Amino acid sequence: MNKTIGVLTSGGDCPGLNAVLRGVVCTAAKLDWKVIGFRDGYEGLLADDGHMELTLQNTEGIMQRGGTILGTTNRGHFVRKGGSGGRGRLDPVVIARTKETLARLRISALVTIGGDGSLSTSQQLFEAGINVIGVPKTIDNDLEATESSFGFDSAVACVTDALDRLHTTARAHKRVIIIEVMGRHAGWIALHGGLAGGADAILLPEIPFSYDRLADAVRAREKSGHPSTIIVVAEGARLAGGREHYHAAQSGEYRLGGIGETVAHELDRRINRPRLTKEIRTCVLGHLQRGGDPTTLDRILGTSFGVKAVDLIAEGKFGQMVSYQHSQVLNVPIASAVRRQKIVQTDCQMVATCRAIGISFGD
Amino acid sequence: MNKTIGVLTSGGDCPGLNAVLRGVVCTAAKLDWKVIGFRDGYEGLLADDGHMELTLQNTEGIMQRGGTILGTTNRGHFVRKGGSGGRGRLDPVVIARTKETLARLRISALVTIGGDGSLSTSQQLFEAGINVIGVPKTIDNDLEATESSFGFDSAVACVTDALDRLHTTARAHKRVIIIEVMGRHAGWIALHGGLAGGADAILLPEIPFSYDRLADAVRAREKSGHPSTIIVVAEGARLAGGREHYHAAQSGEYRLGGIGETVAHELDRRINRPRLTKEIRTCVLGHLQRGGDPTTLDRILGTSFGVKAVDLIAEGKFGQMVSYQHSQVLNVPIASAVRRQKIVQTDCQMVATCRAIGISFGD
Amino acid sequence: MNKTIGVLTSGGDCPGLNAVLRGVVCTAAKLDWKVIGFRDGYEGLLADDGHMELTLQNTEGIMQRGGTILGTTNRGHFVRKGGSGGRGRLDPVVIARTKETLARLRISALVTIGGDGSLSTSQQLFEAGINVIGVPKTIDNDLEATESSFGFDSAVACVTDALDRLHTTARAHKRVIIIEVMGRHAGWIALHGGLAGGADAILLPEIPFSYDRLADAVRAREKSGHPSTIIVVAEGARLAGGREHYHAAQSGEYRLGGIGETVAHELDRRINRPRLTKEIRTCVLGHLQRGGDPTTLDRILGTSFGVKAVDLIAEGKFGQMVSYQHSQVLNVPIASAVRRQKIVQTDCQMVATCRAIGISFGD
Amino acid sequence: MNKTIGVLTSGGDCPGLNAVLRGVVCTAAKLDWKVIGFRDGYEGLLADDGHMELTLQNTEGIMQRGGTILGTTNRGHFVRKGGSGGRGRLDPVVIARTKETLARLRISALVTIGGDGSLSTSQQLFEAGINVIGVPKTIDNDLEATESSFGFDSAVACVTDALDRLHTTARAHKRVIIIEVMGRHAGWIALHGGLAGGADAILLPEIPFSYDRLADAVRAREKSGHPSTIIVVAEGARLAGGREHYHAAQSGEYRLGGIGETVAHELDRRINRPRLTKEIRTCVLGHLQRGGDPTTLDRILGTSFGVKAVDLIAEGKFGQMVSYQHSQVLNVPIASAVRRQKIVQTDCQMVATCRAIGISFGD
């Protein structure tokens, strides 16, 4: 059976996207299917030159690289009101043109790789009669519908590597170093990266903190003979008492005077009055966390997701999304998957492990 | 309550051992317990100068490093007949001296970190009345009693990194490159490393292969426009028809003329007769796989195991072993845990994923 | 002959300091000399508990690690008026106490590892009768007195690695990414890192730039089919026409709203009016550049410098500084070495190479 | 002026080849020249489909990758009698066909990137009237005609990284680990990698060693409290008294029972009789040293060489070879450059540095 399928990557990029693409292409090749890739997320569905054929040749060696050879975007005609998480409906004209494109290219099914917002779009396309298969992408690991997703392990590895670097200079100068990492609503990257990188304190959106307790933690370390302190702060970390810190429009962006700077400032006020006792420095990882080659885990996850997406097409299970559960790649309805966020439970084992070894959450 | 506990690392080293040690020490420190580390595996229990106190100070920064600051060994008085996997009984004199040492140092519980053979020893010590807690260590990931164990992800990362290096040179010269990796009885490292590293063929102990099919795979790649081929072979890979290749005494050792060389030779006979058409090269990773800094995953697993071991002591649950199951660190009886190996199921999803994207198992 | 020598590390830390320390200790050990290390730069000379013996045992494995096991500081009693580059004289009391400490510990010669300011201090101590040997440290590579110095290659490697990460995400989103790196007065890190990392534009203190030309470069890339642009900017980059951007007190610090942000803002004004055509993101590497394990080159340079320092003591050549010239480690008088900066010549071969392959300097 | 030039990569691959290619292409693009790349070394000059156009587009991002996108070979019609170092003359038919190809493609000059043997070929082509520019390639760093060459720093970094890995496992088990690295005639990789990686002994072709002295070094370490020993051995290391060890046809190949194994065996005989006192393990790095992404230095060197090659064409300086001397990229006649090898001088500063810190050369 000769079939043509489409594929696209949508939303913020993360390591593993190319692994999914290669997984789709290699699996399709064994079935003698043709694969059309759309450029720049859903936008490629509307542009005249918005697509390219993906082959074994032009996807060779891409699994090992970050980014996405198809390009991606957070903007455009498919973003509904309310931003990438918007609940608005797609413009009917956009849906009609999408169908036209797919018909013209004889594409019988479309694999969409994207986050929460992109999957909502996929669901609408499915409801409009398009044979869609979703592949979840969340570098923050905050989708309830899948236990693991590619990109997360690579982002954590980037944080861990940064902490390894910062430890040596922090110790040499007996400094406090604050490192701001991704995580608007869920603190998984901060939690995993902080634990693996040997942080002394971790500030999460899920566990409200106070500056006084944080300052206590720094002083307690000093007293016990540890003159340097490394603090990992998720960009969405929240103060106890409801004060909000998060004000960025987009995860992973470098922002002027983000929460890292604020924490540095507040800590400075509490520790270095009346006189300087401890130098404080800040580091914002920003886009470094999105880049780089994927880790082994993310290559395996991405590839497995791509293979499963093609399997689902072969089985005709449209409107479904690939999902990792209990060490297996399964499928769940897209509809039931979107809008349910997975956050760090404050009483979970990993938080308890952190506390057991003396990591402070500033609470 | 002031308590003293002991800890030791036994068997082949792997990344993450130091993370366990630091996890034990930090958790004990919060409880005001003293930790005594024994040197060179169980042997430290017999030597006069076989121990050292482990403190927050001398374990600072060790989580991030491979190896074990306590030293370890595969040999000595605690290795029973039949090698590390031997089923013999410990010498009663050895047990008596062990008890003496623990009594002299007022050690009320002992954490043993080791593989299958070491855990059998732990079980015997427990049966002899010693308060033992086991922590599983298997770089090969082949213990049934725990879904994951530290060291494995780091070993796989080493294989993946090696494959990334070999791809560029293989392509430049259009060569076949064979890379021999750890895995005597279970092919997990070859399977994960091969998939993540973009191998074209993977040979495992669990899936018997034939040289003719392997040669077919190389020729098929050539025909489809891929002039280079990367083959990952586990040291315990087996030929269909029962012929055995494995003949090393110790996993991870570099062996003269191991299976990698044999595969190269047999492939050469099949491909390069009557004339050379394809250069073949071999690479044996050996001990490189055991060394290096642990990955984020192995640091987290190792730390969590160390914390759990102290928790189990606090709860008095002796004769138990730490175990990772369904995303949780739990405990299981040591007795039920040893001797049950976890091997690659030939019909598992990961093998199917490999086949789907065109990886050959030589079968 | 039984001798005791002292050693200290001063100023900002950089990879390779521990290699120097180990080089000193190993060489001294072969001569049966004792080595005393002073903590926290020169400050250790004044504190009661400011020193520790350095031995083969406690320096084992340190060459491979960043930071300095002795600690260091940019502040304290030895910093003259005008900051680290101050030309003031040391307080005579401080000199007297230093001599006392050295006499009490029977230290016959002192190796000081530091930058420009620290070497000025060394020269004053030498003039006051102390047997000083200087070892130059400049992560920025901006000391005229030595062709190469340890730490620089590691800092450049950090920048290159960051660029590798940013390329994938920049391409995926067709963005402009600006990365701010160290280099207040000399642009060596930006130049080497930018060339090695495949930057499209590099802004240096030595080559004044204009925002209009920089915007032209971004547009020219777009037109020629390269929708993403990576710009490396040294923290001391200067605008043509004399406007200054640099305003940080300390190299390597993360600063709120540094030049990276300013460039992003000015570029945004020129490119994204009247409507957004290109997203712009900024990344500040900051202290990441100082941390991490030293590269092979920095380990070799650091070790060679440490060995040479002990050689100079053995030869009684005090007041001299180790220096790398024409592939050899030599010595030059400290007096002639300080205060002469090595900056990028605008007509040098490396700048010409950058221009030849199309890198813009915004001029 | 519209011009077409050719370029090819010949001999064993090494990191930095793609940087040269990109340097050539980018520089040519600014001059509006067309670049034709020949595949598989000189062989591409004879094959009908042996070439491809190189453009800014298809060379984007290649600088950062090892290998060569053109392919290369050590075999074929251009290899003279006596192997890659053979002094024989090229077949006149081969020269005639080469000229034909160049004429047909209107190629006015040819850049050849290769080692000693390839440069000899280039010289013959130049003498036959072809406008050749040579670019030296030697991963072993053993060409007298250039102080530095790309690929070497990357190979050393690979060795250093391997030593970092082996140290942790060697210490954990108190073992002797022998690591065999490239270097048939010159020991630069072993010397630099051994020093940077913290080796305890280094065996070079240039400094004949004895097994008894090597065994002494291992015993001396044991006695001084260092139970593990790391020995780096160049594949061409030689025994004192003229006995030869080297017997491989090709640098970088993995060979059955190479010198690493021999050293292990001989050391075992001297140390472990009458009973085992120290486990010995061997590791052969082989092709891992050729692969991987180039270091910053190799990217800069490679790019600079490519730029210079085009400059030389623009100046009409044919028969010349690019060369790095005294921190500058210059040119020298190819004729004077070939056949002169650069080896380690036994009394050079780096060897003295190694001895000063206690590294044994087994002599």
- Principal-axes geometry of chain A comes out as elongated
Look at the helices and sheets of chain A and give the structural class.
alpha/beta
Low-confidence segments of chain A, ≥5 residues, pLDDT <50? 246-256
Summarize model confidence as the mean pLDDT of chain A. Answer: 93
Helix percent band of chain A: 25-40%
Biggest protein-protein interface?
Answer: A-B, 50 and 50 residues
Distance between the first and last residues' Cα of chain A = 61 Å
Q: Could you name the CATH class of the largest domain in chain A?
A: Alpha Beta
SS strand fraction of chain A: 15-25%
Q: How many distinct helices of chain A?
A: 10
How many domains of chain A? The number is: 2
Biggest sheet character of chain A: 7 strands, mixed
Oligomer: homotetramer
Rg of chain A (C-alpha, Å): 22 Å
Q: Per CATH, which architecture of the largest domain in chain A?
A: 3-Layer(aba) Sandwich
Order of helices and strands of chain A: EHEEHEHEHEHEHEHEHEEHH
Count of strand segments of chain A? 11
